[in-house]
Structure prediction request, 790 residues.
Amino acid sequence: MNTGRMRELGEKRSVIRELFEYGNKRKAEIGVENVFDFSIGNPSIPAPKELSEEICRLLSEENPLSVHGYTSAPGDLSARKAVAENLNERFGTNFGAENLYLTCGAAASLTISLSAVVEEGEEVIIFAPYFPEYTVFIETAGGKPVSVPCKWPDFQMDFEKLSEVLNEKTAAVIINSPNNPSGAVFSEDSIKKLSSILSEAEEKFGRKIYLISDEPYRELVYGKTEVPFVTKYYNDTIICYSWSKSLSLPGERIGYILVSPENPDWKAIYSGICGAGRALGFVCAPSLFQKIIPKCVNMTSDFSVYEKNRDLLYNSLAEMGFEAVKPEGAFYLFLKSPEPDAKAFSEKAKKYEILIVPSDDFGTEGFARISYCVPTEQIERSLQSFKKLAEEYSL
Amino acid sequence: MNTGRMRELGEKRSVIRELFEYGNKRKAEIGVENVFDFSIGNPSIPAPKELSEEICRLLSEENPLSVHGYTSAPGDLSARKAVAENLNERFGTNFGAENLYLTCGAAASLTISLSAVVEEGEEVIIFAPYFPEYTVFIETAGGKPVSVPCKWPDFQMDFEKLSEVLNEKTAAVIINSPNNPSGAVFSEDSIKKLSSILSEAEEKFGRKIYLISDEPYRELVYGKTEVPFVTKYYNDTIICYSWSKSLSLPGERIGYILVSPENPDWKAIYSGICGAGRALGFVCAPSLFQKIIPKCVNMTSDFSVYEKNRDLLYNSLAEMGFEAVKPEGAFYLFLKSPEPDAKAFSEKAKKYEILIVPSDDFGTEGFARISYCVPTEQIERSLQSFKKLAEEYSL
Prediction:
């Protein structure tokens, strides 16, 4: 590969990671309780306790050679069956184990999917604001990221701009809803409109355009919000999922890829995914965590804290005069910067020990991401500092 | 990437996998006890029981957010420290946590290392017989595999042939000792000779040539056999390790890359490895299994069964007139085919319900691999069939 690119990727810390490291240093200096660290999207509520129980049961009752052994490359059959049945129940779909490929988490789901459908030099559309690693993963697959903005103030897709960039080189479009970093959820109308535009483009350019739906936050929605299930609207869909957030297991690297059987080419795409997993060095997803899936497929961590945090933070900041979209999902609040330069805003916040990520690396200018997957007390304690920040901007 | 290549890799079953599937079918037909399946290199002895205890202790005593949380990309600091200290004690080396990068197993160690040091179009030397996936991993990194034979009857490297293929495009050399499939261990003399040839080639061609030592079978050696620790002989060494075999955890995907600090460029190479891990979609190694490392770093599964199997199988087959090198490590016996065509030999063995892998995919003609990581009774029961096979060849 391009060894210079690898070196650069290894040396360059992300803005998020830098802020996080700064926060750790600052906490050591002035005390954890005095730093309001909203930099990182790490779940702050534990995995369901049934999960630990199931792990210990597997270890004490099952044959260790099978618990820790290689599974088939696509994953343990009962885990895949459990996922298919769970999706079919929830969304009225018609999936089988053969449509699913278990992975080492969402990042793996994405690099594998992209490697399976993107040829060298082709384009992949992403909607800004986006998770910054998308550009890295697209480039690994030999693709070129093309950014299309979402619209203020609801952060739905800008379809006019989308239509302008679609062309004969477009291999795929990535969506991420609920969204990191905006907290927006694409409405059913938006997904319908997107599907019809992509179908037209497929016809116009005489090629497949895959819709890759990155859904680690699918279950993390508030109130009556529903996340449309994309395979029902667009046949050439590949869903990338991870249990990192829903079961609070980000370090365990367990997720899946689902290739919609509504796509007449799905078997070839599925083969490409198996091949890409093999080529990139993913032999199988971690086996112990595959084996807890049948037991845990219908569980989530207790998300009520995130909803409480969202309400407290959104309402308090709105009252102070800050502007933001009320997040409908995920655990991020995308705050409009009171000055055009988001980096300057993030630096000013630091003066009040508030650590929030400027939006530039998410492909959007003039915002800051607040990760509210933190203890509620931290938000309570931070409000006075946010108040001072608001005053500095005379909000 | 090349989506056609991905599809082909996903569709084409390996010979090993095909034989294994045939075995499963045959077992269903005539009974497990009547099929002598030596096709797959899956550990047949369980993980140490302390490992399960440590997992349940972590789950009950430690904070689940930390147990299952993201670690830093290079891996949990105490796990890396434990590995460095363990290596320093055993081999008199001088490693620190900063030289280690934890991975999702040996395949990941290899794809990451190759992506970090191989430029598009460069060559990577492998010694035949070799693990067939090496060619896949090298091609993913954009490299070209160049095969150099080992010599019958001791399966040490053929240095004359090696010298012939080294050139200004050689980026790396992979060794695998103890070897899959031959069971050979490269002697200290061989490693010294290899090192001196590579050092000369580095000077002659004015470039770095990395020695990538793939060591999942390091601890699996018999009698007084010692596996030389390669960083002591050659500075530009990258070690790829996995706990799959030593702790019988092949499905859990946990291993490491070690970049020798004796290489003056090690920091840049280490950065390249961090970057490649990121680019390929490996966020971190599975966190729960990272966290058992400090406790388990000095343990192995009980290998005595493998040694017993080796002795029984090697001695019995030798007595029947078969030729093979006595394996010094790993759990494979590389049997010389009594006829030039190894595939024909493997087919004949099937008549007696013996499943052994013809050597062609390992890059060597005229042998068959017997994986003796099976219950000893299977070997005992199979001997009569091997005897018939020997008779068919009038050995």
